[in-house]
Design the sequence.
């Protein structure tokens, strides 16, 4: 994953059956949906996947299934750090890598807790690096168990090892995004993927490799369009309109997530259920009304931009 072509890497949902088991048929449909929409990669076992509510063997099975479904069309990355001893983490990383993943994603807030400084994080990263020869890595500033941002100089140091190729940024700070890009732009194999759609255009213009956002679990086609047209002068008006569309509906799309995204995709025609393992409440009438407005505006944008909808 490099910065030559702006890419959309969806943070994948995990479909479940009503009995709570992983719905692998639904996972196949979901994977194909992302790919048909134009995804350039897939991020499995992330927070959107309800990764903390999957058993270790399920995390392996899910990643394996996605790799097999993608069948070489795009690279797949997957989270591989869930705590435990260094030896336990190394074993899981190697098993996950053996499924065919391009890179193993490390959670910054798991490598070191709130009371531990960056030297502890650095030490633990290099311990993993030393015991996983040849395996590539990425970082994810996941909000759970707590959001630990990687400072630009630390990210640059890790990228300089030649074994860090991906970073999912959740800083919500365009200046920090720019600093991270500036410190790593010499490494062609590395890419920063922004999660925050409120400054998606600014991030892409600053040199981000692409976007990796929850909005891609509603209408990946629109995120792909933005990655392809963000700097075209002739499309400047519509680019700004798309950017404002994401800003306008951001709070709604985060409400009761990921249930709301599964509900929306089911309404669009994807054959997955709405069961979630994370704690949630049912969507109320106000939220459903907001989704109806969202869908009307989404369809209008697709018509104006001549975007073919993968689903209804």
Sequence:
């Amino acid at each position: 994953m490099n910065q030559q072509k702006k890419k959309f890497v969806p943070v994948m949902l995990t479909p479940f059956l009503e009995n709570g088991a992983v719905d692998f048929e639904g996972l196949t449909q979901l994977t194909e949906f992302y790919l048909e929409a134009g995804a350039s990669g897939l991020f499995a076992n992330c927070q959107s996947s309800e990764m903390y509510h999957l058993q270790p063997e399920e995390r392996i099975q899910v990643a394996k299934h996605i790799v097999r479904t993608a069948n070489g069309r795009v690279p797949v990355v997957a989270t591989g750090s869930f705590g435990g001893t260094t030896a336990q983490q190394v074993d899981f990383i190697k098993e996950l890598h053996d499924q065919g993943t391009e890179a193993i994603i490390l959670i910054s807030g798991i490598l070191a807790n709130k009371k531990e400084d960056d030297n502890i994080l650095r030490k633990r990263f290099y311990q993993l690096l030393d015991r996983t020869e040849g395996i590539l890595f990425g970082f994810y500033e996941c909000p759970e168990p707590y959001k630990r941002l990687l400072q630009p100089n630390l990210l640059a140091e890790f990228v300089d090892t030649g074994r860090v190729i991906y970073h999912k940024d959740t800083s919500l700070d365009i200046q920090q995004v720019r600093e991270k890009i500036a410190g790593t732009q010499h490494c062609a194999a590395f890419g920063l993927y922004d999660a925050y759609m409120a400054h998606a255009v600014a991030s892409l213009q600053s040199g981000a490799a692409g976007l990796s956002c929850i909005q891609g679990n509603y209408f990946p086609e629109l995120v792909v369009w933005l990655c392809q047209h963000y700097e075209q002068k002739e499309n400047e008006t519509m680019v700004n309109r798309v950017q404002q569309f994401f800003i306008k509906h951001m709070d709604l799309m985060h409400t009761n997530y990921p249930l709301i995204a599964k509900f929306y995709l089911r309404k669009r025609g994807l054959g997955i259920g709405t069961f979630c393992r994370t704690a949630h409440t049912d969507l109320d009438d106000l939220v459903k009304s907001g989704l109806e407005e969202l869908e009307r505006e989404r369809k209008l944008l697709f018509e104006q931009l001549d975007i073919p909808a993968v689903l209804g």
